[in-house]
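Field log, afternoon session.

UNIT: design team B
ACTIVITY: writing a sequence onto a fixed backbone
BACKBONE:
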């Protein structure tokens, strides 16, 4: 991370998730980050003095401390959520509520963990919800980085997260065949997605969408802050 960047105050939602946990680690490795405010439904063990965990109800967020940028990594599955409505409440409504609260707290940049195929006009419910969120954020933030990972590689068991059955079947093949998959559909490690977002967002002006292959390339070359 460039040494000339001013100290940044950051907001993160989704730190207990696969990508969100890696985002927190990447932020802690970045010495230009002075404060990290984490929004969570449950306590998070983190000893670093820069981290402050706020236990919140995402349907009724309080006024937030002043921040410069926000990372949105809240997500679930329809199977875990229990219904399409419950899925929408997390992946769209909770992320959007955080984005709006962060904007009110001074954030001028936002980084979103979305998905390949996100499109508000899609006939696929999952892709449609992801696309609706992206469109909403584009109207809020002049500086926005959207990550479009394909299949996410990572240790969900360590986080006590259910592995999606499709992922469990696909992961071994994805690791072997990844180099032969077209760029935007290539599998990508969750850590690379996080590193790419944290590396890219502070220097972004305007809208930037990062496909899987770009996330892997930027994430694999990302270095800790000075």
């Amino acid at each position: 991370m460039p040494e000339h960047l001013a100290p940044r105050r950051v907001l993160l939602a989704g730190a207990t998730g696969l990508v969100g946990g890696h985002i927190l680690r990447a932020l802690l490795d970045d010495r230009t980050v002075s404060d990290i405010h984490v929004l969570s439904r449950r306590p998070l063990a983190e000893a670093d003095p820069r981290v402050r965990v706020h236990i919140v109800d995402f349907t009724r967020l309080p006024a937030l401390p002043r921040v410069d940028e926000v990372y949105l990594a809240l997500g679930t599955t329809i199977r875990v959520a229990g219904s399409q409505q419950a899925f929408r409440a997390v992946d769209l409504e909770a992320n959007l509520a955080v984005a709006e609260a962060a904007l009110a707290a001074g954030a001028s940049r936002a980084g979103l963990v979305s998905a390949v195929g996100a499109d508000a006009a899609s006939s696929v419910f999952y892709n449609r919800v992801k696309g609706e969120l992206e469109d909403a954020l584009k109207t809020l933030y002049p500086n926005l980085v959207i990550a479009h990972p394909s299949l996410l590689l990572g240790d969900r068991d360590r986080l006590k997260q259910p592995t999606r059955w499709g992922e469990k079947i696909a992961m071994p093949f994805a690791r072997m065949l990844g180099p032969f998959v077209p760029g935007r559909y290539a599998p990508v490690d969750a850590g690379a997605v996080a590193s790419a977002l944290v590396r890219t967002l502070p220097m972004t002006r305007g809208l930037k969408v990062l496909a899987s292959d770009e996330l892997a390339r930027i994430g694999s070359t990302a270095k800790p802050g000075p």
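LOG NOTE: The longest strand covers residues 33-40.
NEXT ACTIVITY: expression trials, pending approval
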